[in-house]
């Protein structure tokens, strides 16, 4: 038989196989409910390709990745059908912290075994929990979330009734991931790019303005620096209180903060053998911020009255909405100033831009007692986080410290 007649079909079959394994993606999104107001997508094949390329170019990490895979278990053996696009969504009128995802299962028993290996505790009715993560297994599907409050609603909307099928092209365009905000028929998309040592989230590919602001901010060494105009204050206040921005008349918000470790005295009482009360003192080190907050207001009097109506100002003129005491709040012709009084700090020079810079500090992640070892390691690896806004363009950069390995192999 002619070898060419055999080789050519084999090459074609190999090319077709490579296409479907590496390049072809099923863009149908079946597991996003109609009442979702935010959707995050992860291009699993693109992310896998980035991981394999980074792994191939860093052979020193090969043995470590194998040992991690054996000890922690692999998703391939978890009974999960890996999607081309991982669909994560937020449901309208629920807490900002509540996010969900639906996955198809190839073998539900294997998946339950996998959950137990990951220290998920069975709660009955095929429900499992590990700290703030919840899972319910429903036949050949599972619902995962940072809460279980919407599990029944999701099961009815997606798994028990027909749901409208969306297309990935509506949300993502050649980036590793995306996050989209839905308002009626309007969708606002932000790309998520995973680079060598940073993660970028943006809705515009032109980031020259933001990079210029970032270069100025990198010369500062404060833990926190921020400047926000009225619109940005309103956007961020939606996470906490829908009425605070407009009700308080805040027109501009500016702040600078540092972290310091102080000795805190704990006083307790016990009784001696004669039932006399004896005072005992203990000392512990705690981390607290030193800060200066400048609030410009269109009507400083109304702003002060609003804070008082919320009982955020006590008889000693301390702003109690900030739990770190002591501080002092005062009113001036332009607005409100809040200063920590334990140690003075000055505001950073004004840039007249919308930005938030949070620079990492060993005092920050060492004081977060509730985090796991892995979570502390990830946080300690972050150098800074920057948010920027100019007109309708938004940008967030999470910058990791320089390391021998790219970010995808470190985290």
What does the model show?
By secondary structure, this protein is α+β, with helices and mostly antiparallel strands. It has 2 domains: 26-60 and 67-186, no CATH class; 196-410, no CATH class. Helix content is 28%, strand content 36%. The protein contains 12 helices and 21 strands. The protein has a 19-stranded antiparallel sheet that branches. A two-stranded antiparallel sheet has the order 1-10. The longest helix is centred in the N-terminal third of the chain and has 21 residues, at 3-23. Mean pLDDT is 86; it is low at 14-21.
Strand count, sense and barrel status of the largest sheet are: 19 strands, antiparallel
Indicate the overall shape.
globular
Strand content: 35-45%
Distance between the termini: 52 Å
Structural class: alpha+beta
